[in-house]
Amino acid sequence: MASKTACEEFIPKLSAFIDGELSPKERVDVERHLSACSDCVGRAADLRAESALIRVGMEMLADDVDFRDFSQRVMARLTPERPPLLERWKISLGELFTYRRGAIASFAAAAVAAFVVGAVSVARSGMPEGYASPRMAVQTVSTDPEAHVAPVVMKSEGGDAIIWLVSHRHGLEASGGGRTEEVQTEELDMEPKPAKQSTPAPKLNQERPRGGEL
Amino acid sequence: MTRRWMGMSALPFIALLATPAAAAEPKVRVTAEVILASNKGNAIDPPTLAKMKDQFSEKGFAFTSFRRLSSEKLSLRRKPVEVKLPNRRTATLRLDDIKAGTATVQVDISHLASTTLTLGREGSLFQHAGEFEGGQLILVLSPDEAAQPRRVAGGSRPPYDRGSAQDAMSLTPDDQ
Q1: Closest Cα of chain B to A118: distance in Å?
Q2: What is the reported pLDDT for A147?
Q3: What is the pLDDT of residue A130?
Q4: Contacts of B109 (CB under 8 A, 6+ apart)
Q5: Cα(B122)–Cα(A189) distance, integer angstroms
Q6: Pairwise CB contact (< 8 Å): B160 & A147
Q7: CB distance B165–A130 less than 8 Å?
């Protein structure tokens, strides 16, 4: 059992002990004293009970209070007159240009560089995609075997390509459709590899195909 | 805070790089017209087709009437685009590839013919597409208007209505 003198030393610390406000060393000392002093154990129990009662009482009081819009009300008290939007913008910009000059300069430089790169890119690709070649060019022409036609490729003076289909059945003779005279066919920028024709096209400048009905 | 500003400074560049990435799928634009050439009457509709008549006449075709039945501006991608022809055939157009900025396009006329061509800023393709009402259907494929050489004066005209090759050359600003 601890002496009364020892109790007098620890009683003032009991409240702080219960609230967890003691340093580790003091806490160890108090715990050691409590292990040997039943009177102080009783005092500590009383203090805990009081603390619990006070907490419950405070909670009951708090339940009666309306805490809706609490933060707004607090903020309204802190800044009772909110400046207008323009004023706030001015203040923000003023702070920005005062304290962030370097960052603003680098941002502006980056934006200008991006704009220049974009403008150059747009200028280079002024034409729509896919039109890098100056003229259209026919690469291959093939026909359906069931159609019994052969293609004749012609090139006009303006650089246009006419692909006309002539009938095999009529032996490449004009059949009352369009052609009235012999066609002078011309090759039109064809690639070196031959056209994958299902049916052979008339040889240019040899068979003299005529257009007409299919 | 400095890092945040560095990040913000990089935003314009990121936006610049992201733009082409978003539009990565290749696409080309062409104009597809369906013309009926026949010997019934001598209507040229619209009148701009007079040049086409001359071009065909030079090649020995004696069609007296040219009528435009339809005109469409198409955006070609890998997925085929169909143009219905009045003779129950279908013209199917598809972008094959784009190499070195030049697009290769496949034009299929159903049960008739298939043509592969590379697009260019000048010239048109006149693809015979079969018979219709006693005349001949012609599918005209022309470059996108934005791709055609700019003219010094005058309104927009169909690509095949450009006059002779020399005229066309004289109209380009580069030759001024």
Answers
A1: 7
A2: 85
A3: 86
A4: B85, B89, B90, B91, B127, B129, B130, B139
A5: 14
A6: no
A7: no
